[in-house]
Each structure stands twice: as structure tokens, then as C-alpha cells.
Amino acid sequence: MGTIKKKIKVTGDKGSISVTALFDSGSSKTFIRKDKASTACTITLHDTPVDITLADGKSKIKEIGICALKMVIDDHDVNDAVHVIDADSSAEMYIGVPTLQRFNIGLKFGKTQKQDKIDFSKFTPEVNELF
């Protein structure tokens, strides 16, 4: 498992913002912080928040809802449902395994962080956009 950090543009029904995204091969979902999501999209709130256990097996965050976002990653449009978390996290967004798999986005890790890259060689855009 590994991570790559990158600035990306996200657009929702309220507008566009730039966020620092962590591409995380160990994340079970794609998440965005509530403070960022509320600026870009209308959040459909869960009836009750969902506890998400982090990789350390101890730490928990709260998933409070979901929203539809278009992410622009290296000139590739990725339209996906994104889970909204109420957490104080250094990353503003986490791009998780389901999004990476759905769009055939690869993560290639080199010997140094500078050699890490996002691989779009097999990228498959979704035909059905969310908005």
C-alpha cells in the first residue's frame, strides 16, 4: 500500500475548488473533508454518522454523508460519488481504491517519492456522468 499527494480541482453543484488529494491504495472509499465538500457540493447527510476505522485499527473518523463531484486529475475527468467526513485531517481529500479501480487509474511507486506517479495508461472514463 502507498500514497501519492497531488493538487486537483473538484467541481460540484455549488462550484469548483482546488484540494490536496491523497491517492491512497489502502483506502476503502474516496473521502473529502466536510469543510471542503460544503463549498463545492450539496451534501446528502446520513441519518446517523458512520464510524470509519483507519488503517491503524484504532483511530476513527465520522462519515456524515455523500456528494457528487467531478475531479480533474492530470486533465482527466473523474465523476464519482464521494463520502464526506467530519474530521480534522491534513489531507483535504482521499482518493480510494473503488475510484482508482472504477476508472483504471494506477499508482506507480518508485524508489523515491519523486519517482511516484499516477498512471493513466489504462484510464477508462465513465459513460454515465453524475451531473
Q: Would you mind describing this structure in some detail?
A:
It is a single chain. With 131 residues, the protein is mostly beta strands. Helix content is 10%, strand content 51%. It is built from two helices and nine strands; from the N terminus they run βββαββββαββ. The strands form two sheets. The protein has a six-stranded mixed beta barrel. The chain has a two-stranded antiparallel sheet with strand order 8-9. A hairpin with an 8-residue loop joins β8 and β9. The relative contact order is 0.25. The mean pLDDT is 92.
| CATH fold category name | Cathepsin D, subunit A, domain 1
Q: What is the H/E order? A: EEEHEEEEHEE
Secondary-structure arrangement, i.e. CATH architecture: Beta Barrel
Would you tell me the overall average pLDDT?
A: 92
Chart the SSEs and their pairings.
Elements: E1 3-12, E2 15-24, E3 31-33, H1 34-40, E4 44-53, E5 60-73, E6 76-86, E7 93-95, H2 97-102, E8 106-108, E9 117-119
Parallel strand pairs: 2-7, 3-6
Antiparallel strand pairs: 1-2, 1-5, 3-7, 4-5, 5-6, 8-9
